[in-house]
Predict the structure.
Amino acid sequence: MKPVHFVGASREDIRELPDSAQETAGFQLFKVQQGKEADDWKPMPAVESGVHEIRVRDESGAYRVFVCGQVRRSRVCAPCV
């Protein structure tokens, strides 16, 4: 399994999400670590090649987590928007 390296305050940003959104985001990142695709994500070539947006929706709203591809056999998670 590939480790996730959080950039800047991205880990803290995820921890500030509502519990259900936080749980969903964590599970989706876990799937990506395993080399699988997240349930709801899309490429973001306008940001940069290899960047994907994981979309997380729950009753409190919609959230995004950016996964910035593979860097030295790991996955990089950029700050949430």
